[in-house]
Amino acid sequence: MVLLKQVSGEEQLTSVVIHLCSFWVKIYDIPMKFRTERHLPLTAGRLGQFCEIDERGPVGWGKYVRARVVIDVDQPLKKKIHSQSATASTLVFPVRYDNLPNYYYGCGLIGHLVQECDAWADVDSDVDQEFPYGEGLRAFPTKAFYTQITRVSPQKKPIPRRPISVPPPQSSTSIKAIDSDTLSHQVARAVNLDGSATLTPPSYSLHLIRCST
What we know:
Layout: E1 20-28, H1 39-44, E2 49-53, E3 64-72, E4 80-84, E5 90-97, E6 174-175, E7 189-191, E8 197-199
Antiparallel strand pairs: 1-3, 1-5, 2-3, 4-5, 6-7, 7-8
Protein name: CCHC-type domain-containing protein
Organism: Turnera subulata
InterPro entries: At4g02000-like
């Protein structure tokens, strides 16, 4: 982890102290009454300097509220936030940090090794110890929260099938005269009322007439 600080250029290097870093922190088990614009900055501010709330996620109904806070890396990490309710009962909110670098489980300082810790310098590495801090301070990677929108194509309404009423014709077919000049080319033509015609192939019958209805 590399910490940077903006300076004006007039400071002496020995007077510049870099010990602040912003983290995204997940605060769990916050009651619904405390998830307001007034209460959330106060709750997250117990960890350090409050910056903002991640409103892309489910702030009002999720398991946790994600906030960005500037904390002092020279101080031990806070595992929980204690708050008082309206009934004077103590509320405890577990805390987890996103992208948390290495820290020592004995003292909870970021970038602090066991050799540099005065409180845990005499700890025997061969003996199992129960440290105050553990891996539980690391938050799982946050998945992007998106509102899923499903497009529903409008269903086409089926065209109703309605019966078509056709008025009866005055007569079914009008018959046209037959050309009987040549017996082998006799054709009976039935002309319908709409102008269409039905042709009958040549026949050996002299008076063959086919009527279309």
